[in-house]
Design a protein that fits this description.
globular; Glycosyltransferase; 16 strands; 2 domains; single chain; five-stranded antiparallel β-sheet
Length: about 500
């Protein structure tokens, strides 16, 4: 398996090295292939430099090691200017350069120490950032002997503990109910595992068990929430499995990632699909191919270096406090999520994935970026709303132009009516009867006009819709692109009733 990790690293390396360009000032930049500039406020350059240095050292590749040092030198020279940028990712950047401090020359090591100690931590408390902040402040104590940094570590520990549910799932924001998704849950757990490898004592058995319980039959771990099908998750996931010695699960993860990675790299993408990166299709505002690819590369390198160093025996959940429900049988797998408030991509109750033994993955992923926090640049409204396995309500929008006084002021005002499409979130029940998968949406408001909307990967999957136990027509109406590929929309006619059921044969 370490050999397979090595092969994947060597697949990514030449892509990342090709993005290094020398500026007019003689300093190297890690230039994004889609934006044609270094994304200096983010962390692509630091992660690429750290990956080159660590891999160069591990494999005795002097050329790569020196290339990493050269890029690191450029980063350190420009650091004070870059850290003034609004979106500077202090915790990410500090952690990346701290990883190479023990293996570079004394002068560079001292510069790294001074740089990190003179750079403030990030000023927010998004949960997946906190283990990085913890690791960096642990280094500051080691370098300066100043225990004042311990208060920051204690704060990080306290917040992570509050964010951890009894079943092992970790919220990405507090208070509870704000944001949860699999990508950033595993990011938090993976860097906590990095801290374990560094000697920090903690038990991550239930946290790992929660994640392993969520893995879909095709090997995917990243099919729910804001991070759906993004490469960010995969270096961290492989690091967690490799360093904890979970060989069987590691093989599953590697076999999922490897065949999808080359296409992503060829297209300068940061999602594991076939779309061109320059399109930024269903990307969030903060997405850059260079940043996420370098991040994945560094954690794959660390997976190789730290393999089997801190064993975890997973403890699987027996309840679902986080709200991620898994139904698993010999014939079917269904994952559905109760929902959070911050992002449309995480609202619910919503089906996150359906698999059958006969058809494989039937559907995966929910929604996509939406107006609001981090979701404004690359919105495809119609697509996003239809990329949802569930009920869509169709409402006639109240037309402000119909007000009488407006017509007196503006006699020629347009009074055309239009309809509004909205997701309708209802309680979900999963059953299996007579080898058929049954999904029920309960307590549907009888006044609502709704349609069943299921984006399937195959148009050959037989789906039957029932309204109050009566069969209603369901057809493949169109095809849309989601985070994974082309999907075929199975939609019912307009419905009105209290209980809607689908059967998958």
């Amino acid at each position: 398996m370490t050999e397979q990790i090595k092969q994947i690293i060597e697949l990514i390396l030449p892509v990342c090295t090709s993005w290094i360009q020398k500026g007019t000032d003689g300093l190297e930049r890690f230039v994004d292939p889609n934006d044609n500039e270094e994304i200096s406020a983010h962390y692509g350059a630091t992660h690429a430099a750290a990956a080159f240095i660590l891999w160069g050292k591990s494999t005795s590749n002097e050329v790569l090691y020196k290339q990493g040092l050269s890029l690191l030198h450029s980063i350190l020279v420009r650091w004070d200017d870059n850290k003034k940028l609004t979106a500077f990712h202090s915790d990410f950047n500090n952690l990346a350069i701290s990883m190479v401090e023990p293996i570079v020359d004394d002068k560079t090591a001292q510069t790294i120490r001074n740089t990190i100690c003179d750079t403030a931590d990030s000023n927010h408390y998004t949960i997946n950032w906190l283990p990085m902040r913890w690791a960096v402040n642990k280094k500051r104590i080691e370098w300066k002997g100043d225990n004042n940094y311990q208060s920051t570590i204690n704060k990080c520990k306290e917040i992570i503990f509050k964010a951890t549910n009894a079943d092992g799932g970790i919220e990405d924001r507090l208070p509870h109910g704000t944001s949860f998704n699999l990508q950033y849950d595993l990011a938090t757990v993976s860097i906590l595992q990095y801290l374990r490898v560094q000697g920090e004592p903690m038990d991550l058995s239930k946290e790992l068990g929660f994640l392993l319980n969520a893995v879909a039959p095709d090997g995917d771990i990243n099919y729910q929430g804001r991070g759906t099908n993004q490469i960010f998750a995969w270096g961290l996931w492989i690091y967690l499995l490799a360093s904890s010695g979970n060989t069987k699960d590691l093989l599953t993860a590697l076999n999922f990632l490897e065949p999808r990675l080359k296409k992503m790299l060829d297209n300068n993408n940061m999602m594991l699909n076939e779309w061109e990166g320059k399109e930024k299709y269903l990307w969030w505002d903060y997405h850059y191919a260079s940043v996420y690819t370098a991040h994945c590369l560094l954690w794959l390198v660390m997976a190789y270096i730290d393999a089997y160093k801190a064993k975890i025996t997973p403890l699987f959940p027996i309840t679902a406090e986080t709200g991620l429900h898994i139904y698993r049988s010999e014939s079917y797998f269904v994952s559905w999520f109760e929902g959070r408030t911050e992002y449309l991509a995480e609202k619910g109750p919503a089906i996150a994935a359906i698999w059958s033994k006969e058809h494989g993955m039937i559907c995966k992923g929910t929604f996509a970026p939406w107006q609001g926090h981090f979701g404004n640049k690359y919105i495809y409204e119609d697509i996003v709303l239809k990329n949802y396995c569930g009920l869509l309500s169709i409402k006639k929008d109240k037309d402000w132009s119909k007000k009488r006084f407006l017509h007196k002021l503006f006699p020629k005002i347009n009074t055309n009516e239009y309809y509004k499409l909205q997701p309708l979130f209802c309680p979900i029940i999963i059953e299996e009867k007579n080898s058929n998968l049954i999904i029920k949406w309960k307590n549907v408001a009888s006044k609502d006009n709704v349609i069943v909307n299921i984006p399937t990967f195959s148009n050959k999957c037989h789906i039957e819709t029932l309204l109050n136990n009566k069969i209603v027509p369901t057809f493949c109406t169109e095809a849309i692109k989601n985070q994974y590929g082309w999907t075929y929309l199975q939609q019912s006619k307009l419905l009105r009733g209290n209980e809607v059921t689908i059967k998958i044969y």
